[in-house]
Amino acid sequence: MTELQVLKTEELTISMGPQHPSTHGVLRLILRVDGEYIRDVKPDLGYLHRGMEKMAEERTYLQFLPLTDRFDYLSAMFNNMVYVRAVEKLGGVEVPERAEYIRVMMMELNRIASHLIFWGTFGLDLGALTPVLYAFREREKVLDLLEMVSGARMTFNYIRFGGVRADLPSGFIEKLKAFLDDFPHRVDDYDALLTGNDIFKMRTIGVGPLSAEKAVEIGVTGPMLRASGVPFDIRRAEPYSVYERFDFKIPTRADGDTFDRYVIRMEEMRQCVRILRQAMEQIPEGDVQTKVSRALKLPAGDVYTRIESPRGELGVYLVSDGGGNPYRFKLRAPSFINLQAIKPLAVGMKVGDLIAILGSIDIVLGEVDR
Amino acid sequence: MDENEKEKAEKKPAEAAAPVPKKPIEDEIKTGFGDAIAGTRYNFGDLEIKVKKEEIVSLCRFLKNHDKIPYNLLRNLTAVDYKDRFEVVYHLCAMSTMENIIVKADVNRENPHIDSVTSVWCGADWQEREVFDLFGIHFDGHPDLRRIMLTDDWEGHPLRKDYVKKEREVKNASQAIRVINAKNDGTTGT
Predict the structure, then answer these.
(1) Pick from B43, B125, B159: which is nearest to A340 by CB?
(2) Complex ipTM above 0.95?
(3) How many CB pairs under 8 A join A and B?
(4) Residues contacting B44, CB < 8 A, separation 6+
(5) Above 80 in pLDDT, residue A54?
């Protein structure tokens, strides 16, 4: 007994990642643990840093467009959109109404695909191996739709300056309709499969709570901020494109814990369906592209545009010196800012909870490291 | 908000040149900070303030704790290299009214230092580290100022306009393999 009492204990520093299935890419977390409890988390970034902001300065505006797909590769439409919007705003390019509707439809479909990946991999992180199969089944249908329109499944390069690359192909609306009729039932299935599961609830409820004040101070946006009770969604707060014409809810939760962050994304998928249905009904006939010169030159000046991506406020700060290349391009990546919350969320929790917390932040390393 | 204004401007081009209605906060800042404000203008409907870098923290704190419209969200923090100077840019937003303010501060290139705003928004932490990493601008008072994207032994700051990239010309895949092999066994690879 006395021997047990004098057993020496010490804090241990361990490295989680950069190769680790639950870091969702090449992220390294340097943990200081006391037994099972986390005392400190230091994220080590940059493994996927490709210097994209520097690359932008060496390319023309049009040449850089396909590269924007590679930031957040799970929601490439949003990256296209935010960059194109910055260029259009600075250059005063007008966009046909039909193109704006197509953009919104593509973005909302992409949001569903992105949230499905979250749902599937979040289940995997917590040891539920089945959800990912269901998630990928439905995601496949979304990707088929996106491929039908853009020709690509992940790196779309579809939203162009002054519109979109091509009009919707024939048969698309019917296929989309069939998907939208089916998908809400599938989300109900997901809830039945995972959300109500007792083990799942024990692993997530009360784990890693984030207060609204803290969230705003860090600059957290997107589903994470709304889970903490702040109804901040740029689609509603500063409507862009044609979002002000649609009726949809901004789901919020009160506790800001891992479970709330999960539920918000489930509810958002349902809201995506609502937006898509309305867009499908309202979409006008007409052109989908204004002519924009390939050797586009923008007037000197700077602009900051932002849109609501599946992860939060996606912004582009674009500076032009009047030439044909961006003078400075900066991507305000929501994952990068949101990941800062990992330390206040995880300290004091157990190592196993860290996996749940990190999963609920929903990062994409392509966007964090740029 | 600026989106609506842009739409209006597109419909009535005659009004586009008309000045944007002045925001009350502009006069408040001008009287409160006096000489520290180097200039103000409106950028796509958002107020833009150029401030002397010594006053950056006090201005940010004033805006964040404003009693009527607190500019509580730091949306974006970055820098631009204008060859003769650096400019650090802060995009702030008042979440209650969705009003945006852009704050800019010049930093000289020879000795680039500016005070850190991490004491105002803890979320500025990584954004300042990124600017330090890629531009070499030092943020005084930052709790943990070290490189974030690049390795610790990286030389230079890539987003500076005078940064010279070190690159080896690689024409095709087989040459690329030779280059990699050469690196491994220490020969020149040609």
Answers:
(1) B125
(2) no
(3) 85
(4) A89, A303, B2, B5, B6
(5) yes
Which residue, among B18, B160, B135, has the nearest Cα to B77 in the 3D structure? B135
CB A334 within 8 A of CB A314: yes
What are the φ and ψ backbone dihedral angles of A256, each rounded to 5 degrees?
Answer: 70, 20
The answer to whether the beta carbons of residues B51 and B104 sit under 8 Å apart is yes
- Give dist(CA A175, CA A137) in Å, integer: 16
Q: Note the pLDDT tens digit of each residue in B97-127.
A: 888 899 999 898 888 999 999 988 888 899 9
Average pLDDT over residues A349-357: 88
Residue A254, classified by CB atoms within 10 Å of its CB into exposed (0-12), middle (13-18) or buried (19+), is exposed
Residue with tokens 């631009």: B80
Number of residues written out for chain A: 370
Signed CA dihedral, A86, A90, A91, A95: sign only:
positive
Q: What is the pLDDT of residues B47-72, one digit of tens each?
A: 888 888 888 888 888 888 888 888 88
Is the bond into A18 cis (omega within 30 degrees of 0)? yes
Radius of gyration from C-alpha coordinates of chain B: 22
Measured in angstroms, the CA of B90 and the nearest CA of chain A are apart by 11
pLDDT tens-digit map of A222-240 = 999 999 988 888 988 888 8
Q: Answer whether A304's CB lies under 8 Å from A317's CB.
A: yes
- pLDDT of res. B14: 38
**pTM for the structure as a whole:** 0.84
Q: Which two three-digit tokens encode residue A107?
A: 């973005």
Tell me if A54 and B10 make a contact (CB, 8 A cut-off). no
Which of A218, A226, A228 to mutate: most B Cβ within 10 Å? A218
Residues 6+ apart with CB under 8 A from A109: A77, A142, A145, A146, A176, A272, A276
Test the A interface: residue of B6, B90, B159, B165 with most A CBs within 10 Å: B159
A31's tokens: 């943990």
How far is residue A320's CA from residue A300's CA, in Å, rounded to a whole number?
5
Q: Is B73 on the interface with A (CB under 8 A)?
A: yes
What whole-number distance in Å separates Cα of residue A150 and Cα of residue A166? 8
Q: Over chain B, what is the mean pLDDT?
A: 80
